[in-house]
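Question thread 4412

I'm putting together a teaching handout and wanted feedback from people who do this every day. The idea is simple: show students a protein as raw sequence, then show them the structure tokens that encode its fold, then repeat with a second protein so they can compare. Below is the first pair exactly as I plan to print it.
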Amino acid sequence: MSSAQALLLAALLLPAIGALFAAAMPGRLDRAGRVGGTVFAAASLGVVVALGLARTAVPGVRRIEPFAEIDVPWAPTLSLRFHIGVDGISYPLVVLTALLTVLCCAYCLWRVPEPGRGRLLVALLLVLQAGITGVFLALDLVLFFVFFEVVLLPMYAVIAVWGGSERRRAARKFVLYTLFGSVLLLVGVFVVVSSAGTGDLVALSDPAVRPMSAGMQLLAFVLLAVAFAVKSPLWPLHTWLPAAHTEAPTVGSVILAGVLLKMGTYGLLRVAVGVAPDGAARAAPVLGILATAAILAGGLICLAQTELKRLIAYSSVGHMGFVLLGVATLTATGMQAALIGNIAHGLVTGLLFFVAGAIKDRTHTGELDQLGGLRETAPALSGVLAFAAIASLGLPGLAGFWGEAFAVVAAFQRGGGLWTTLGVLAAVGAALAAAYFLRLLRRVTHGAATPLVAQLAAPVPVAAGVSPAAEEDAAQAVGGGATSDESGSSRGVGPTRALARLTAGELVAWAPLIVLTLVVGVAPAVALHWSNAAVEALAGVFGR
């Protein structure tokens, strides 16, 4: 086994081993389980970075072939193989998955939502990482489906156990929609494998040996596209998303928005378009119309939202619309827009959900009309919120700009009345994003402090010589925020500290996302150079 193959296998196995380690810890060693799980997550990120450094590229060669792969028999009697690999399209998403997982695990060292049991939450996060990474690495359609299903039960548990008051209803809705998409995916996989005689994605994506007829390609593309549209989610199959985001704990929302949605957009580009390009070409106008509808619908719905996490959740519908519009154009520019849009959305929306979770932890509400005045009472918190919001609305120089801009440009490059109209409407959707995020900032950070915020920010009068413990009791009596001790249980803290100061866990989890949002915004080639050759080869099938 070569060093690249060893790194590839380690990227898949380390999260699984870490999950077993964290889950096996007894309750009295809950913090040790969290620390151990975080160490495994950090080791996995290191392995993924090393995997990229070990890549050997051939100048001038346009190809989709993986730069590291393992292909061994899995179920020989069924002609199934354990075939995994990483190429320029999947590698940035593998890095994003590893990064967000380690940040969420590290965040759990300081903050565990009720009912505690932080080691089990960390274990589920690592299982999610293993499943999502497997989706991005799978080069066999059956194996892809298996990994696609691995993430279902862990995410259900994260929402149903550590979520909000309506967590079970939201978790059930997530499962029902996901199962619907899974059934379509399974049928699509069956159609492809039975028609082509193979489930190998490398062979199926090779124009020289593509075995399916045009009619079967259209059928396969429709089945696969609808299945991935549920996961993306594409309007009108998006209704499970707001409830799941609103009720999920902070780390659950970050993983859900940051990488789990990318399974849908990645599957659409890498699997549906790669396996059935003729079907993609015939269905592209419909996909483009639905993507633009998602952009506009997401923006208009966000303008009417009054709850912080629901607004961010619906903004994901619009942002994923830009990703899907880029894919629908079937151009190199559009596919690059989809890839960098995926990365930017993971970074920026992950940061937004971290900040939204911090605000709800401090104030115990996400209602916008109760959160005004944070700029004066909690300047650091409102500053990070403002940074994430302007990055998400697509300000030039920040990561969110490139995916939206490239998607609109790709629509105009495609030409014709339909695509030009879609490009114009998508640009209007970008303006709507600016409108609802600026409205969010006006209501939450600016203006006079609401009674709730003013109460939480007011200093607590404490007599001279009072111990810190007594000061904490006085702070709790007037309604402080909540933090987490080593066992994961909540304890009161002073209002001023709870509202104004960023915790160590927040600084550790947020700083990398802030830095990478700036880096990708200023130098998009950091994300794009991995995928240039693969995207040119994929778009070359369509002569674009």
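The second pair follows. I'd like the answer to focus on this one:
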Amino acid sequence: MKMQMKPLLVAFALAGLAACAPRTAQTITPHEPLPATAPAAPAKERQAFVAAAHPLAVEAGLEVLRKGGSAVDAAIAVQAMLSLVEPQSSGLGGGAFMTRYDAKTRTVTVYDGREVAPAGATPDMLLGPDGKPLSFATAVVSGRATGVPGVVRMLGVAHQRDGKLAWKDLFGDVVRTAEDGFVVGPRLARMIAGRAPQARSADAVAYFRNAQGEQIKAGDTLRNPAYAAFVRRLAAQGPDAMYKGETARRIVARLHQGEFASSMIEADIAGYKPVVREAVCNGYRVYILCAPPPPSSGVGLLQLMALIERTDIGTRGPNDPIAWVKYAEASRVMYADRDAYVGDVPTVPVKGMLDPAYVASRVALIADRAGPAPQPGTPPGAVTARIDATNEVAGTSHFIVIDGEGNAVSMTTTVESLFGSGRMVDGFFLNNQMTDFSFVPEGPNAIAPGKRPRSSMVPTVILHPDRRLAGAIGSPGGNAILAYVSKALVGIVEWNMPVAEAIALPNLVARGSSFNGEAGKFAPPLLAAMAERGVTVRGGSGEDSGLHGVMIRDGKFDGGADPRRDGVARTITLPARK
């Protein structure tokens, strides 16, 4: 089908509000563009920014920006490098959501490169012969785990619309790095030696062995000539190198091997279409937050921030146990609604979930002590809440690019779980995104042909009321992404912390009857006081957060990369405009 570009034009009047003054949450709706104004005088120098989960990916993006590339151009280089140096988290065999801000028009556009179910997919395909759901360990390494990859085609569409440099000129760094090799860091080495079933797959075991047949360890050099060869073809042929011809044939052949084989055929791959969507936006304090709409969970993040805004968390601070208890309770309310209603279906009550009266009714469930696990509410426009049996595990990567013109990309990208399905083609891992569907064939996230699994990825841009860029944020982490991003936003906005300090705050993921998180990072007295109020934090699992964030404060980038991963955040100075 023909894609329709619907960039979001948001205008929101918040004049006169104090920085932390509570107000009624309001849904932001599209408006006409602002009248044209005279261009500002050229600056003597310009700043650009990249934050990503590996220094080599950051440098690849910065090099593109130095050559005059746009934020989208740099994002392509960052993603191609992450596929090589952080293969446990994202790659060209996966999918992504990109939220792009255009500085000239002050508009926000979402590029949806989420994987899709093959045409032959069936609602019961993750059930075993006994009619019961397959174990995750069985499903994740099967051919059925993989959806049609979307990130490459999505990046191609974004480049056609928003790129400045030639596509072929965006991959030089990654080709050289794949050929020459890169030094394996402790985090990747830990994943290689881990117990995830994908790490023990035949493809992964073969890839992560040196010439002597020994498992790669931290400090070793890892080369990937197959990936270098594929990226060369990708640079020369464009996205068709993935979706037509030899690579597509190899993907299909690999997915048809073994028990629980995929139904995917070459036509599924050739027919993949990314979607250009309108962002969902909502006011939060003195800002506007814009994130991807369904099948992503941007509405969940915005609802959670609207709930938090109506509490007194902001006046309490990060050392107050009641602040964390109320945060946990707000999170549980949001997850109850998100799980019940959000999916790749036309019935998601996006406006209803952000309706001020509905939000107020849900705030009434938030107290200074934990109550029973909240049930889904009934937002305006909702259909009956349905059971959800989605097992969305931790994984994924996130990065931010801001170019010298002030255009920004916030992109969350994934192969789903660690090393995706553990199956490789042409030097990259194939995703296991089909396991992001509900294993039980009912509810808004049930499997259907051509459907996109629900996602917790919420790459977000932050705007001032006049639609100038204020910042960007996002994280990996499976269904915990919403908790990770909201925690950082609380630190940045409610508690006025530097971005890096807000990112480093302890993680607390409250969903249903569970309170998971970084128990060891909370001060013992604070942890005990939270437990007395019913929030007993237990250690989490998976990859944990990988937050990247930036705020533009006093004309400078205040950025940060999650200390839990290998990422960095860097600002560079570019020459003045000619």
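Top answer:
Good format. For the second protein you could add a caption like this: Residues 321-341 form the longest helix (21 residues). The longest strand covers residues 95-102.
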